[in-house]
Amino acid sequence: MNYRLLQAFRSLFDGHAYLHRRSNLGDHVAMHLYEDIHALGRSQKLVQRVESGLSVLNSKNLQQGVKARRGDGSFGEIVPNADPIRDEGFAVLRGPIATIEIGIEVKIMMKAMIKQIDRVANDLQSQVNHFRQRSSNPISVGIVGINHSTHCTTYEGDRAYQTDGKKHKHPIDEAAEAEERLKLHSAPIFDEFIVLRFRATNEEPFKFEWVDKAETVLDYGAALVRIGQAYDKRI
Asked: Please, are residues 61 and 70 in contact by the beta-carbon 8 Å criterion?
């Protein structure tokens, strides 16, 4: 099975520059998780609610009538009398939601990982708190991409910033510690915590590769099964 989320994640880097300032990248990745769970078919309750249009992907990533920071791809029960939107190529409809059944937060650590690790951990904690405050028992999913390339460049406007291995450490020098710290401090607060290990220098010709593609596919598939099981029990 070709998982759509993994393809969507790859598309952020493969063949073009990854621009970390774009705020909708997490949404783009997260929405494909619901397509993968639906296609896998292990959660009959989710399949039924998706196909009936009862549960949808939040089109604005905000609960109706609730002021809160956005989540990456919230999924829940549609507001009564709202007309859902069907997008070509997607099984899961979009619309305003009254509840959060599944909430996803996506973070991508490209470089300078240890410098930003506390901020990332705080953002993950804040998002889980939001999910739990706004719904009785939502399923929370954390997805963190960690770059393992030997060097890397990032872009802000017309400027490029390269790692040098000294003042600015290369991603491979920080990846293991970043993952260890996130697994220790952030993973336990989520129902499911998915780490995507990849290599991308973010330099022409903008190549992308998984650190271990077979392991990534197996780990992600297992996470989908567990999320589906949790959905059948809770919702």
From this structure: yes
> Are 85 and 95 within 8 A, CB to CB?
yes
β-bridge mates for residue 109, sequence order: 146
CA distance 27 to 180: 25
Residue 68 pLDDT exceeds 90: no
Q: What is the DSSP string of the chain?
A: ---HHHHHHHHTTTTS---TT-TTHHHHHHHHHHHHHHHH---HHHHHHHHHTSEEEEEEEEETT------SS-EEEBPTT---B--TT-SS-EEEESS-SEEEEEEEE-S-HHHHHHHHHHHHHHHHHHHHHHSSSPEEEEEEEEE--SS-EEEETTEEEE--SSSS--HHHHHHHHHHHHHHHTGGGSSEEEEEEEE----TT---EESSHHHHHHHHHHHHHHHHHHHHHH-
- Bridge partners of 57? 75, 94
Q: Which of 31, 7, 47, 52 is nearest to 232 (CA)?
A: 47
Q: What is the pTM of this model?
A: 0.93
Q: Which long-range contacts (CB under 8 A, 24 or more apart) does 114-120 make?
A: 114/169, 114/174, 114/177, 114/178, 117/178, 117/181, 117/182, 120/144, 120/182, 120/186
191-212 residue pLDDT tens = 999 999 999 999 999 999 999 9
